[in-house]
UniProtKB/TrEMBL annotation:
<keyword id="KW-0812">Transmembrane</keyword>
<feature type="transmembrane region" description="Helical">
    <location>
        <begin position="7"/>
        <end position="26"/>
    </location>
</feature>
<protein>
    <recommendedName>
        <fullName>DUF4154 domain-containing protein</fullName>
    </recommendedName>
</protein>
<keyword id="KW-0472">Membrane</keyword>
<keyword id="KW-1133">Transmembrane helix</keyword>
Length: 170
């Protein structure tokens, strides 16, 4: 027969193992993968768009729709992972799209740092933030918020394109 102390220890270990399993499952189920950078059209074009994103089926669908919409225009499009935001110079782009997931009750550090350091260029930055409820966003940043539901990617792509169009017509 187990002693009271052993029962408590076993219970704590079981709860700990369940919690660890839940954390691993959540990380596997909802983690973003790193996006490989690529370009569409030639960099010597006058109009330039950069899309910084995290890898997910939802964000990939939005990125594809944006590219499909503008690829026939004379616009250079560069797609990068949000972890590379610190490498870009905002003044070199007519428009910047930043798509990220709200992680641990805040935006990714790279996104927050970029937004904080580019206050003078906020008028050309479009942010899409995804979260479980689709309501979380950075303070004082004009943001489109949503849940990552693939069936809604067309509607959110259209919202981004609507905001991009005047920036890319200048």
């Amino acid at each position: 027969m187990m002693s009271r102390k052993n029962k408590i220890t076993l219970t704590i270990l079981i709860i700990g193992a369940l919690f660890l399993s839940l954390v691993i499952w959540y990380k596997y189920e909802y983690s973003m993968y790193k996006v490989e950078a690529y370009e569409v059209n030639t960099p010597n074009l006058n109009k330039k768009l950069i899309i910084a994103t995290q890898g997910s089926e939802f964000k990939d669908a939005i990125t594809k729709r944006i590219i499909d919409h503008y690829k026939q225009d004379s616009i250079f499009i560069k797609v990068i992972d949000v972890s590379s935001l610190q490498k870009i110079e905002p003044k070199n782009y007519n428009a910047i799209v930043v798509m990220h997931t709200w992680e641990n009750w805040k935006p990714p550090v790279d996104v927050q740092t970029f937004i904080d350091s580019t206050k003078d260029f906020q008028d050309r930055i479009i942010v899409l933030t995804t979260s479980g409820k689709g309501t979380f966003k950075m303070e004082n940043v004009d943001t489109i918020t949503c849940e990552s539901k693939l069936e809604n990617s067309e509607s959110y792509s259209s919202k981004i394109i609507k905001k991009l169009t005047p920036l890319l017509k200048q």
